[in-house]
Amino acid sequence: MRAPNELLKAQKLANLLDTAIKLPFIPIRLGLDFLIGLVPVIGDTVMLLASIRILYLAKKMGVPAPLRKAMLRNSVIDYGLGFIPLAGDVVDLFFKANQRNVRIMEKWWVSENKAKIDQDAAVKLSAWQASDD
Fold first, then answer.
1. What is the spatial distance between Cα 105 and Cα 49, in angstroms, rounded to a whole number?
2. Taking the alpha carbons of 121, 122, 125, 126 in that order, is the dihedral positive or negative?
3. pTM, rounded to two decimals
């Protein structure tokens, strides 16, 4: 069983925005959200628009409205933090709104498809065990 295209696109976008770059010698990953967010107001606004793309993908995927509302709250918090000079940029390193939003999408999709996922896993496990004998 394969995840829907909307979820896969949201995962790629969230990784680009939040964790695409690994800093050497420091166990912190950052993405375009942090870098572009360093530009006051404009950078944060552009990154909010990118976050809204993930919300659009969630809606297209069928994620229920209450979960999308939680996702919107994450994006707005991230946007609001960007207006706090310096501290907002530091907090942005750790508050990965896009990653949080994708986790909400993933958890919902898995809960909706758990029976099928379990069935597919059992079939693959049986095939693997049979080939090992």
1. 18
2. negative
3. 0.88
